[in-house]
Amino acid sequence: MGAESRTSGGESATRKLLLYGALLSFSSIFQMGYSNAYPNTSIETFKGYLNESFDGQLDPPSFSWLWSAVLNIWFIGFAVGSLLAVPIADRIGRKSCLMIGNAGNVVSATLSCLAIPLGWWWLYMGARLLFAVSAAVSMNSLILLLQESSPASLRGTMSFYAEMAFVVTNAVGVVCGMRVVLGWNLLALTGVAIVPAVVSLLIVWPFHESPKFLLLKRKDAEAAKAALKFYQNADGEECDRFLREAEEETAGDGKRGQEEAEKAAGITDFLRVQHLRKGLLLGFLALQLTSSIWPILYLSTEFLVRANIDALTAEGVSTVMLMFSTLSTVVGMVVVERFSRRRLFLSFASINVGALVLFVISACLQHSWDEAKYGCIVAICLHGVSYSFVFPVVPPLPFHVSIAVGPIAWFLTAELVPLSHRATAQSVALCANQLVGLCFSFVTLPLYDVIESFGYSGSLIFVPLFIAPGIICIAVLAWQLPETRGVE
């Protein structure tokens, strides 16, 4: 009876923790996912909005550069926010940092909405900059809070919630951006984000701080035990064991003692210490493999139209792609703790890069064989699915392969370094990734135009920007990336 009671209690604690993760993630990430997706399917309405802002003087090449700037200012804001998240999360806590990020989401959503009736495109662009900063602060603190409040057996599942929320709200955004929904009304389209942004503040308020942060940063064992009871229904013995394991985690491999764990983490540590430098580099390379999702997320409708697919079908394909991505993330979340993290990630990366190769080949063939354009549709859907899907291939095949996606990249860096340097590593890796993403994503649409002006498919720009770098990253990670599943 006692064993059954403990099992029942453990299942109840797991369900509660999963519910907490869902509430925190979906409320905090809504603005990030929704506002990055609706410009994709509402691009024609935004063309009219920008053209009216310039009194009808905006020609197509100018639109490409301006629209690219409006979309990709996100990367600058996210990079800045990633750096700001380090001192905030380490000094005032993960929960408080999340509250600050969510408050910024409320302000940015309101400004985005005001920019539409005022006709001030620069205000809309500034609001995107602010919401990118806020999203970075929220995302970094959310991942840390979820990881540090969970047992090792659930850490990957809880970390998946951030990406789950992102792709789900992507799907909501791309559906709302369709002209048959809200894509024709930019005021309503932008205003939708205000409500969940406000709700997110109310949801986060009653949550406890991360138990590991309370113990190792604030040295408050009693508050850490209270947080453990809140998140995991832990009894006294379980609290003592958790706190003991948390202290052992910071002690490293025996050569680095508790003194190192108590030092303030600095960026220079990643230049001096080999294991920190390697963890940061591998985390950055993993994140780079997700960089192609941004031009697909922003511009898949435009890419499909240029592959001779009608606009309504292109909107529908972009919507279906994100729907598949959402369903795939659900599957990935279920099995992330059952299979090798390393195998899942490397398999995902190969499929993801392969989808881009298929798109380039199909788009190039379409000029001489119109039926090849359907290969572009397959490629876009495969890219979205491979970004979020995990599926074990079982016998009768003579090998075992798992296909996975981007969610792992978002929390892999945090698993490759000790807790004392986790916030710094996570933020620096994301910051560097966003700066590179800015350069690549910003030039994608304008260079698409340049290549097409010479009579070739603009999709060829994917080769130097995403395909070749992706292959290099996969090779390095296959050589050096360790397994992190279930390991402190």
UniProtKB/TrEMBL annotation:
Is DNA-binding found in the keyword set? no
- Looking at the record, the residues that make up the Major facilitator superfamily (MFS) profile domain are 17-485
Question: Topology with regard to the membrane?
Answer: Multi-pass membrane protein
Give TM segment ranges.
17-34, 65-86, 98-123, 129-146, 158-180, 186-208, 279-297, 317-336, 343-363, 397-417, 429-448, 454-479
Q: Name one Pfam family in it.
A: Sugar_tr
Q: Which UniProt keywords apply?
A: Membrane, Transmembrane, Transmembrane helix
Q: Does the keyword Transmembrane apply?
A: yes
Q: Where in the cell is it found?
A: Membrane
- What is the recorded name of this protein? Major facilitator superfamily (MFS) profile domain-containing protein
In its UniProt entry, the species of origin is given as Pristionchus fissidentatus
